């Protein structure tokens, strides 16, 4: 039983000075959920994390039984957790999906070749077939070749466009009905902020959709739309999932902050200090919260 404070409010149960899980009241709390601020144990965290994703899938009717679904797999934490959770939920709740991993080899030496080894291990660990499509096979050149030709400027833009097309072509080749990606609430919040700063109303109106491309041949779904990135990291850590932790050498944690502040400078001619850049992180998490509360 939990104790009460002086004003009568319930306090989380505790034992010998250790705070217990607010859900089961039996095991010691192992973490404080970023999403709800609850002190919970690992076992309860696994349950609520997976149940919330299942509820998102059900509430938005993301899948139909018998569909062939490509899981966009990069070997990173988001796609690795996505592959693990979706395969578990598919078995547990009998979704009836035909799942497979789909990876893109951009041809980035020292990055993609290593991360693809992780995906190959995931193929065995999760019992999911793997298909790898490469820029070299699809376009005749690698991302390294592109950088040599055009330099570093705008290379991320080129890579993003080509990668999206490569996923579509790979999914079509394998006759997939849908593609699922590991885009999470933080990613969506970043996109919302960026489109607001750019004044891009057209993209702002659709960037929070949980499913995109419904008018095209292969729709894309985001089961992690309401899932915080911090919780994905915690889940991967506690579950000891095998993922590739090194980011692309042109992409790092502060990228979103730099992009956002750069957009402010470009469109509003305001020089942005380092402190303001870092403050943007807190603004982004505020948008994450709004996306979850308003279910936009």
UniProtKB/TrEMBL annotation:
It comes from Setaria italica. Plays a central role in 2-thiolation of mcm(5)S(2)U at tRNA wobble positions of tRNA(Lys), tRNA(Glu) and tRNA(Gln). Directly binds tRNAs and probably acts by catalyzing adenylation of tRNAs, an intermediate required for 2-thiolation. It is unclear whether it acts as a sulfurtransferase that transfers sulfur from thiocarboxylated URM1 onto the uridine of tRNAs at wobble position. Residues 69-250 form the tRNA(Ile)-lysidine/2-thiocytidine synthase N-terminal domain. It comes from the Eukaryota. GO terms for molecular function: transferase activity; tRNA binding. SUPFAM superfamilies: Adenine nucleotide alpha hydrolases-like. Keywords: Cytoplasm, RNA-binding, Transferase, tRNA processing, tRNA-binding. This is tRNA(Ile)-lysidine/2-thiocytidine synthase N-terminal domain-containing protein. GO terms for biological process: tRNA processing. InterPro entries: CTU1-like_ATP-bd (IPR056369), Rossmann-like_a/b/a_fold (IPR014729), TilS/TtcA_N (IPR011063).
